[in-house]
Amino acid sequence: MIFGRPARNRRQRRAERREVLEVRLRSDRARASRRWGLLVFTLFLAGGIGLFVVTRFWDRLHAEFVERNPFFAIKTIEIQTEGRWITPEQVRAWADVREGDNLLLLDLRRIKRDLEIIPQLATVSIERVPPHLLRIQVTEREPVAQVRGVQWSASGEVLPVTYFLDPGGMVMPPLPAEAVPAERQAALASLPAVVGLDGREIRPGRPVQARSVLAALRLIRAFENAAVRRVASLVAVDVSDPELLVVRTGEGSEITLHPEGLDLQLRRWWVVHEAGARQSNVIATLDLSLTNHCPVVWAPVSPPPPPPPNPAVAPSGRQPHA
């Protein structure tokens, strides 16, 4: 017993010291955690205050030196078009920009997006040239044919309207009369018409998908470089039969073609015309869709009308008295 107590006392003292050390360690850890939490909170608070101050200062600088700075006011809006049927004034109206607008604050993506949804425009390029110049360059879709359709008016009425097609079949609605030069209005009115297509294919701003219509557009483009163009003019192309194209000319002829091999058929049309011209005949109807022969109906050439009489000469040949 005498020798056992000191050992037990030593163990108790060591246990007490360990407990005291553990308590101190936990206390030190708690204090360190609180210090770190306070430090992080202080840093976040200081960062937030600093960010707020910097943001307000930047807004002040931006408003003073950019938004209200007359140095960046637009003085020139340079619009480049191909001049086929769209005027620079019309492009400017679509872009909705004016002289005096702040060049640096323009939303170029918005302007480009607004112009790209115009069916008459194929590509759009916008360039900001500080300090005063805004440059807009557009390429136009070329109208090669017209097609009749309908549209709803503001009062709910169904009105007939003439749409235009480019070589790829894009359906383009008509522009306001004041937006198209007078000489271009006459040219648009003289474009050949595509008739006989399903009205559901006419969707402004979207290309026509019907193969017969696309074939008619290829025919119109090929006709522009064909020799027969010197003696005939296209008035309408009927696509009601998906396997055939029926052309009506300004000279009163009716020509039937197959959608494939149009260049060869146009050359055969020219050969047939020349053969008829040597006999003083013109083509009434001609079927070029057949490969082994060309059924043709001839019509005699109409004599030219006599010239009108000269009102200044009397029937007896004497000048009339005043």
Q: Please tally the helical runs, counting DSSP H or I stretches of 4 or more residues.
A: 6
Largest sheet: 6 strands, mixed
Strand content: 15-25%
The 3D shape can be described as elongated
Oligomer: single chain
Q: What share of residues is helical?
A: 25-40%
Instruction: List the uncertain runs.
Output: 312-317
Order of helices and strands: HEHHEEEEEHEHEEEHEE
Domain module count: 3
Supply the CATH architecture of the largest domain.
Answer: 3-Layer(aba) Sandwich
> Mind telling me the CATH class of the largest domain?
Alpha Beta
What's the total count of β strands?
Answer: 12
Q: How far from one another are the termini?
A: 170 Å
Radius of gyration: 42 Å
Derived structural class: alpha/beta
What name does the CATH topology of the largest domain carry? Rossmann fold
Mean pLDDT, rounded to whole units?
84
Produce the secondary structure layout.
Layout lengths: L3 H64 L8 E5 L7 H8 L12 H9 L4 E9 L3 E8 L4 E8 L5 E8 L5 E2 L9 H8 L3 E3 L15 H14 L9 E5 L6 E5 L4 E4 L4 H17 L2 E7 L8 E5 L22
Parallel strand pairs: 1-3, 7-8, 10-11
Antiparallel strand pairs: 2-3, 4-5, 5-6, 8-9, 9-10, 11-12
